[in-house]
Amino acid sequence: MPKVVHDAKIAILTCPFEPPKPKTKHKLDISSVEEFKNLQEYEQDKFKEMIKYVKDSGANLVICQWGFDDEANHLLLQNELPAVRWVGGSEIEMIAIATGGRIVPRFEDLDASKLGYAGKVTEVEFGTTRDHMLVLEDCANKKAVTALIRGSNKMLIDESTRALHDSLCVVRNLIRDDRVVYGGGAAEISCSLAVQEEADKQKGIDQYAFRAFAEALDSIPMALAENSGLNPISTLTALKSEHVNTGKSSIGVDCLGSNNNDMKQLFVIDPLIGKKQQVLLATQLTRMILKINNVIVSGKDQY
């Protein structure tokens, strides 16, 4: 079959290219050559009928979820109808989304309105491996994209997949809420200073809770500084001092070694919705642990 198909009109099928089989409670006995020939002609007629349905719809490429034997493969080739078999269910759905086609469960339901479109379909082989991939270009749905990740081992591929997933989640969060905060621990330092300022206004035992919350927020920039090879305590002290003296809320840990702590100039940002969720989940987890240990119940001390 051809390796490249231009202006592909794709029939996406979840029905197999094979004649109907008897149910499990029935059996078919063949006792003569004539009966075998009749069965063979019946199968070929069914194959030709299936191919006729596909050809009448105007399709010039078939994507099939199930397999087909050598006889069906031969008839497809004779009718100049390229086909791809054993395409997984999730891949079938992705192809339908990308090409704008409909998934057809029966040959009788196939018509021109249910075909997908791709400007070019190519079969690609990967170097020394036996893997094959079908590349669809200029599809009806221009926004559909497939990312191919390859690596020397499975651990590297899994790590790249997680990184790509995290990036997509960031984009999703920005679409939901386009507000951002400065990264590099700048947002945590600003929150810590605000909580510490509020702690000074409190009286009694509440101020200890506020101070503990402020110290917990400081752990983020301290971890960033330590991972960057900096002295965490002196770095945090200097950054807090710069926050107070300059009034800039964009001062954070310079993890890039550029001698610039202004995250606004370095364009280091985080989505606000993600940062809020992190703080909220951490706070809820802490409250849950405290309640389990019978330290705080309904916001009151228990002895």
TrEMBL record:
GO CC entries: chaperonin-containing T-complex
Main location: cytoplasm
Identification of the protein by name: T-complex protein 1 subunit epsilon
Top-level division of the source organism's lineage: Eukaryota
Gene3D superfamilies per the UniProt record, alphabetical: GroEL, GroEL-like equatorial domain
Annotated GO MF terms: ATP binding; ATP-dependent protein folding chaperone
Family: Belongs to the TCP-1 chaperonin family.
InterPro entries according to UniProt: Chaperone_TCP-1, Cpn60/GroEL/TCP-1, GroEL-like_apical_dom_sf, GROEL-like_equatorial_sf
Organism: Candida boidinii
Compartments (UniProt record): Cytoplasm
Keyword list, A-Z: ATP-binding, Chaperone, Cytoplasm, Nucleotide-binding
Record flagged with keyword ATP-binding: yes
